[in-house]
């Protein structure tokens, strides 16, 4: 046994008989005990407890990760994909997240509404810009015709 981890106790063994005046010593009983096994049991239980606690923490973390994935990440990915594919030809399709409508608007619904509002504003601005371009192009064509007519008139004079 390692030094300091052993407990030793000695007890005298005596025999008492009524014919003897005093007890007769027949020997000694020495008990030697070590707390090494106690320490080993404590260490084993601590390691087992650490293993179980680690498994519980890992399962809790995986559960939390799954909840965040289902509740948030997939919707953010949908929005990022939608924003990446946006162009003037793809503005017709509104963003729609695949989830139940919340009882009261949350941050994801507000973001969805803001992106759809931005899409409608871009559509309106594009229509307005096209109308202005068509109108400006018509005025330019009219100015070119007028300039051509003026040049014709001056050439004939």
TrEMBL record:
Gene3D superfamilies recorded: 6.10.340.10
Keyword entries, A-Z: Kinase, Membrane, Transferase, Transmembrane, Transmembrane helix
Record bears the keyword Membrane: yes
A single GO molecular function term of this UniProt record: kinase activity
Transmembrane parts of this sequence: 50-72
Claim: Membrane is one of the keywords in the record: yes
Identification of the protein by name: Hybrid sensor histidine kinase/response regulator
Organism: Marinobacter nauticus
